[in-house]
């Protein structure tokens, strides 16, 4: 397994654990036992209310260049230039555009599963849960999609909790 694939799986597991911890704290309902799945299934599975629940995990970085910066990758002069240009755009517009892009991409996926929730982990340090709530009414969740529920972790560490985006 390549380092990038290992890192992706680790980030997905971290996001799933943070989400489950926040969900339990909010609802008092236990959600347990995560394991990773093959590509035909959502990223992670767990047990919720005695049944299997699959979680598709996405990370909200903003752009590919911002993801590289956030993940500590080597940045070329061209990448630095793109990042400088992005910082000129209004934060709310960039957040909304990035979030809607993830939702659009995920809505087109199909999985071999009966129940799946989409969990988006906000990884962008400039965006907070309050920012997400401020644009919540503008978020477009395309129809049709396979997600029973759509959630977002308000920050990378899960300190600000979760927000349900759908239904």
Can you give keywords for this protein?
alpha/beta, globular, 167 residues
Query: Radius of gyration, Cα only, in angstroms?
Result: 16 Å
Counting structural domains, the number is 1
End-to-end span in angstroms?
Answer: 37 Å
**Mind summarizing the main beta sheet?**
6 strands, mixed
Neighbour order of strands in the largest sheet:
1-2-3-4-5-6
Low-confidence stretches: none
Shape call: globular
Arithmetic mean pLDDT? 92
Structural class: alpha/beta
SS strand fraction: 15-25%
Could you give the count of β-strands?
6
How many distinct helices? 5
Task: Work out the helicity level.
Answer: 25-40%
Summarize the helix and strand pattern as letters: HEEEHHHEHEE
How would you summarize the topology of this molecule?
Elements: H1 3-27, E1 31-36, E2 44-48, E3 51-60, H2 64-70, H3 77-86, H4 91-107, E4 116-122, H5 129-135, E5 149-153, E6 162-166
Parallel strand pairs: 3-4, 4-5
Antiparallel strand pairs: 1-2, 2-3, 5-6
Written account of the structure:
- By secondary structure, the protein is an alpha/beta fold.
- The chain is built from five helices and six strands; from the N terminus they run αβββαααβαββ.
- β1 (31-36) and β2 form a beta hairpin.
- The longest helix has 25 residues, at 3-27.
- It starts with a helix and ends with a strand.
Tell me briefly what this model is:
With 167 residues, the protein is an alpha/beta fold. The chain has helices at residues 3-27, 64-70, 77-86, 91-107, 129-135; strands at residues 31-36, 44-48, 51-60, 116-122, 149-153, 162-166.
